[in-house]
Amino acid sequence: MIRINENFNALQGSYLFYETGKRVKEFQQKNPDIRVIKLGIGDVTEPLSPSIIAGLKEAVSEMGVRETFQGYPPYEGYEFLRNIICETDFRARGINISPGEIFVSTGAKEDTANIQELFSGDIKLAITDPVYPVYVDSNIMAGRNKIEYLPCNAESNFLPGLPSEDADLIYLCFPNNPTGQAIDRAGLKKWVDYARQKKAVILFDAAYESYIREEGIPHSIYEIDGAEEVAIEFRSLSKAAGFTGTRCSYTVIPDKLMAPDKSGVRHSLNKLWLRRQSTKSNGVAYIIQKGAYGYFTEKGRLENMKIVDYYLENASIIGRGIAALGLNYCGGVNSPYIWCSVPEGLNSWQFFDELLSRCNIAGTPGSGFGSCGEGYFRLTGFGKRQDINEAVERLVKFK
Length: 399
Ligand code: PLP
What we know:
Blueprint: H1 16-30, E1 37-38, H2 50-63, H3 79-90, E2 102-105, H4 108-114, E3 125-129, H5 134-141, E4 147-151, E5 169-173, H6 185-198, E6 201-205, E7 231-236, H7 238-241, E8 249-252, E9 258-260, E10 266-268, H8 269-280, H9 286-296, H10 298-324, E11 329-331, E12 337-341, H11 348-359, E13 361-362, E14 364-365, E15 376-380, H12 385-395
Parallel strand pairs: 1-13, 3-4, 3-5, 5-6, 6-7
Antiparallel strand pairs: 2-8, 7-8, 9-10, 11-12, 12-15, 14-15
The protein binds pyridoxal-5'-phosphate.
Pyridoxal-5'-phosphate binds next to helix 4.
């Protein structure tokens, strides 16, 4: 008789954004005349930029001509895209990453969820709390339960301390979702040194790299000496180039990154990932990769820098609105997220419901990102300026 994977029973009831979406929908059904401003789910609102559209259009035409038609793409991504990624995201910053170390993918969500397949089932994990839920859930689905949560709260300036027990696999995300906090070079070096000492691997999610505006904040973990021996980095075009619906990302697995099997034989994680990807995926569409190429051109980068600036300005407007309510917050500087404390006497979900019913604003309750997120709330700078301004005006009703 068929039986399910029992690990699913260990997951929390439903995916966070499914639950918030459900509550918003119910509210809207009961109040059809009210317009809810959605500052909850981190989805972009500005259209794709002209350079990306030009790349997509060109590829669509090429696909209609026998000579330029493309079948299955290479598993690792087209060389034209991996080359320009290396140039713009790494060599331009003095980091030596080669195209063979880049794997183009459909999303950082997929890759951060799937990467755990490379590692043994009994390893110890260190995961920040609050956290992007995918890291935890993907490990629970795989049956892992040795997880040390690293609290990130006001006392720790929303940065994780080193694990108390030796960790084997460490998940870091900077600039962080949900807290919006960024990490400086010294802070990140501490983690690279730790991983080198403990023979651990760091999974560094840099999905929000393009929001970094302050000096002294590393754009890549490979800016830190020795990181290429201990870290995998994830990048995404979702928030950098409006690709949430178009889907393209990439993962860097340096050739120097090795991990042993139980007999102590060391294996290249780059080769293992290629083996995994070539078994389970048929790559990313040519049309999408041509659109992504448009983003990496100089013109494309400039166009998208302006869009990211727009979201950052939105976030700082929300931050000012939150501060006017007397609530503390962090984020919004190198990140589209504002992470604020909830008013006294309310928990995160109560604040969600109150904000929805009194101000008609949908946010995300911090407790959905982990137990240390209780008492906090996430608002995003993704949205039209008019809506952001209106949301800030509506916030006054909370006073
Ligand atoms: N990593 C983090 C921290 C995110 O916040 C998100 C999206 O919200 C992702 C990864 C997913 O990115 P993608 O759209 O490339 O799957």
